[in-house]
Design brief:
The chain is of the alpha+beta class. It folds into 2 domains: about 80 residues, SH3 type barrels, CATH 2.30.30.60; about 130 residues, no CATH class. Helix content is about 40%, strand content about 20%. The chain is built from 8 helices and 8 strands, in the order αββββαβαβαααββαα. Strands 4-3-2-1-5 form a 5-stranded antiparallel beta sheet. It is elongated and about 85 Å long. The model has no long low-confidence stretch (mean pLDDT about 90).
Amino acid sequence: MLVFRDSILGLVASIQIFVNDLVRVGDWIEMPAHGVDGDVISVTLTTIKVQNWDRTISTVPSYCVISESFRNWRGMQESDGRRLKRSIAIDVHSVQFCSREQIERFRRFSLLKDYIASKLVEVEAYNKKYGIDTSELINGRRLTNLGTFRAYLSEYLRRHPGINEDMTLMVRQLPPSAEGLPIEIYVFSLDKQWENYEALQADIFDHVLSVVGEFDLRVFQGPTGLVMAGIGSRAAA
């Protein structure tokens, strides 16, 4: 029986693969345990052959698809968009309430005019309703440079021609850590082709990193060798 073990397992697996439509030729699958990441080029009774992105060929037993976990990207390829999920870390020491000067400057940003106008009305109505003394910064509600930055990014993404606005689109905070406060962009690109998807993602974050300073925010990054060398030279002096 041991002689026919692989054939029997392969036959059972092939039936399940076919009935459940788990894998087809042309699917992009990932099986990290087997070093597989690429397009399926053949499915036989006993084996599945995959051409990896580095152009190497991997062959795995068909029953591995049934007995182990794997990822099939077909759902993404057949959907209306490919998920883009990436964050930048903000230095929490740069987060602040907006001053009058900052608000006036932010008003001039075309993507923020409506947001600033409606938010100021909302904040003023809240503070007036509860009789809040706004002479102290800590009292009541106020606009912050970080909240305004998130609103800017949301509007920027809604108007971006490469983003599917009918799917989930949000800019959110993740839990802060020793590496700063992550602001995550979670959207779906219209173009699912890998090269175009990566180019779109890079273009968006080129813009994000370029405008963050306009909101008086700083991107958090660990000290570089150059910075450490400067600290060392000052300490020595």
